[in-house]
């Protein structure tokens, strides 16, 4: 029922997640934060089983921060993605499997390039220009296929991402009224921005309508 969306351009990455938090058919909150800041210029969004997403996200976050404290420098996006993939693959060979899907996006200071990595719950990892997880991917990937360009400006990329989110909110039978997204570039991870769907409730009686 969750949705993650990400796209990579020449000098920045956008990663987004829905704010749905619930279990079974019950919505428990609509401001769930699914973003984990791994370094100053590297972020990860996670979806899946509620407990697994938090535990695995914090496991990766704390270990990458510990690596920086021990060695004096942060992992690159490529190294962090492979470390995450290794941890997820190892869990499948133990009694504590993590049922999580995730996107990792970041900016590499050495190569001066941005990166976006797609990973599923089986530990499959691939670098992609854009990606999506969940039922929302059915609608958002077709829009990205048509309109994505690697040379998009931040404003154009934001507009494209918002169009994807609006399409998911309009056509998906599951209600995902709020999304959050972040921009990651040479300046670091931006403040959280939200896209909230507002629905006007009307009561129609005998051909007339009035606001509820």
Task: Describe the 3D structure.
- There is one protein chain.
- This protein is α+β, with helices and mostly antiparallel strands and 212 residues long.
- It is built from 4 helices and 15 strands.
- The strands form 4 sheets. Strands 1, 2, 10, 11, 12 and 13 form a 6-stranded antiparallel beta sheet that branches. The protein has a 5-stranded antiparallel beta sheet with strand order 5-6-7-8-9, with helices on one face. A two-stranded antiparallel ribbon has the order 3-4.
- A hairpin with a 3-residue loop joins β1 (3-8) and β2.
- It starts with a strand and ends with a strand.
Short description:
The chain is 31% helix and 37% strand. It is built from four helices and 15 strands.
The N- to C-terminal Cα distance equals 29 Å
Number of separate helices: 4
**Based on helices, strands and strand pairing, what is the structural class?**
alpha+beta
Number of strands: 15
Task: Please describe the topology of this protein.
Elements: E1 3-8, E2 12-18, E3 21-23, E4 26-29, E5 35-39, E6 42-48, H1 50-71, H2 77-91, E7 100-108, E8 113-119, E9 125-127, E10 130-134, H3 137-147, H4 154-171, E11 178-185, E12 188-189, E13 193-196, E14 202-205, E15 208-211
Antiparallel strand pairs: 1-2, 1-10, 2-11, 3-4, 5-6, 6-7, 7-8, 8-9, 11-12, 11-13, 14-15
Helix pairs in contact: 3-4
